[in-house]
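Hello support,

Our group uses your service weekly, and this is the first time we've seen a run hang past the timeout. The protein is ABC transporter permease. I'm not sure whether the cause is the sequence or the server load. Input pasted verbatim:
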Amino acid sequence: MGRVGALLVKRALLLVVLLVLVFVTVDLLPGDAASATSERGESAADVERRRAMLGLDRPVLQRCWDWLTGLPAGDLGTSARGVPVSELVAGPFPNTLMLGGLALLLTATFALALGCWAALRPGSLLDRSISGTATAVLALPEFVVAIALVALLSLWAGWLPAVTIAGADGSPASWGMLVLPVLALTIPQIGWNVRIVRAALADEAREPHVEAAVLDGLRPHRVLLRHVLPGALPAIVTGLATSTGMLLGGAVVVEAVFNYPGVGSVLASAAADRDAPLVAGVTALAGAVITVMLLIADLVRDALAGGRR
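Update from on-call engineer: The timeout came from a worker crash unrelated to the input. Re-ran successfully.
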């Protein structure tokens, strides 16, 4: 088995362990799916029949195993309300991916630009200002950034809508409604990734071949782009891949603030319903996206390292 196969197996096993923990955690919450989804006026016998229909009379690990065995065929199971999980996430999950993808693109662009700008003037006021601001920004929770953006750009300036309205197809009705949610996700991640870019560039700048290029009298921009940045890219790519998980996690909070039609509302309803298959289904999809991004980062890192050798 090659390195790629070993990485896939390792991360698949980690994802399975995570999904088992999700199932068990939902099962440990007070109440269960039968009582949480019961209608007003239903008798105890009706709730008990629903409990048996949902299989809640069986051990949680047995229910989890039955659900896991359907994953290879793409079966995410059935929710506590009798709707296939795949139908419930078919619209919201692509919306969340779009939100996270745009935030990741902006994060990569600004983190590279600011990190390289600071690296051109190491130790200067500009370098210290960018690094200090990045440290402060990365400490801000997404919901704080989201509320501040709403207050500033929507309620005060009136430039952008404070909430997202879904169109007929379930996606945001206009691109303008994406601006604030994307910014709320992007700003903390820019801070995190600027620090990674700046540190990676500083480490690479100490390499002998870089010092030789400086002694040869090459211009700083040329030294940065031709000698420093290529060697720093593996660490930068890994940092961006790691941001995928933080973006998807932060999206749940941001979607709630802006009423964005993503998996955040689905996950909140699933938790209220004690709906383990739905919570695990959303987790499985997010975990698959994160696994793919980390695998891509590993392949890019290996390719860049091989090119340097």
